[in-house]
Design goal:
This protein has 395 residues and is an alpha+beta fold. Helix content is 21%, strand content 34%. The chain is built from six helices and 27 strands. α4 runs antiparallel to α5.
Amino acid sequence: MISICRQLLLQLLRRYYAASAFAACLGLTSVPGFAQNDALVEPAILSPLAQHSLLMDVDQIGSRLIAVGERGHILISEDNATNWKQMQVPVRVTLTASYFVDEQHGWVVGHDGVVLHTSDGGIHWHKQLDGEQANQLMLKHAQLLLAENQTAMQAASPEQLDDLEGQLEGLTIAAEDAESFVTEGASRPFLDVWFRNDKEGFIVGAYGLFLHTTDSGDSWQPWTKHIDNPDILHLNSISPVGDSLYIAAEAGALFRSDDNGKSWISLDSPYDGTFFGVVGVGDVGTDDHAVVAYGLRGNVFISFNRGSTWEDIDTGIDASLFGATRLSDGSVALVGNGGFTLQINPKGQVYHLNQTLNKLPLSAVINHSDTGLLTVGLGGLQSIPLKHNPLKKNK
């Protein structure tokens, strides 16, 4: 099983590649267990074409650029994206997201439940977790919650018993699902990662995967009881905006935490489709900021009250949007299918729309320089001109 966002990406890209070939390179279709196990223990193959292959995420850490993607590819540039060097990586699964807390400490997550860590700025990587281990963690957690419920029922008052019985069915189903995932093996991808500092962080993924660490990833604890996700929806991204954290998920689900991820509230959603991310717009260091949520078929919404209510942004396109970054002037840039790039100002207005000549899907973007964006996607790395916000310029 795979996440809805990766399924969608596969469907959208079929026009460019034969479906079977592209599915194979992404690792999206069901494959024999031995093939998955090989990808978890065999190192990535060094390739001179890596920078032109499917890349899923890109980060800038000081003067260093780091991109991650299919087949365990991790690339580093030390000269402003002119040249790229592929790093030695202990796995060859598709890597979906990366996050660095400083110039030394970073994490990368990906298919088959992989978590990689570096403490030297991305030069060396080691595996901290894989899907087999994650499944066991989730199973033990589900069984523990079920046992706690059954124990509490034995000493409960009639009033308490009603509530506990209501929880019992959901906990039983969760435990059964966890057993099924153990049987399937390392099938669930992690889709995003965020760390508050070099010790504490979170990873989210398909079918409700949600883990927390306080020791730099040396050990992980399931965090599912801290979020209301009984349908084990895919959790597609986790991102900070101001003093809050946001999780974007499928089926229109959005969550916010105001206590560094300890607890999460469900937000009223403006639509029922999948969200791929949330990004801050405006001055995120003050109350004078908004949040933008983006997803399928060009759906983008803005909230000026931290997700309590939302307003639709007319993007003028029906292409799904997969990645975003905040620009230095407070605007945001979004990228997605068809090679589209949108720039939106803090008032929620689209002031620039661009489409690449090759029209290949873009999965992530960073504000690379004062004049350009750096994107990654199906065609690898691409630089795109940046248009400055006219409202900001005229002030």
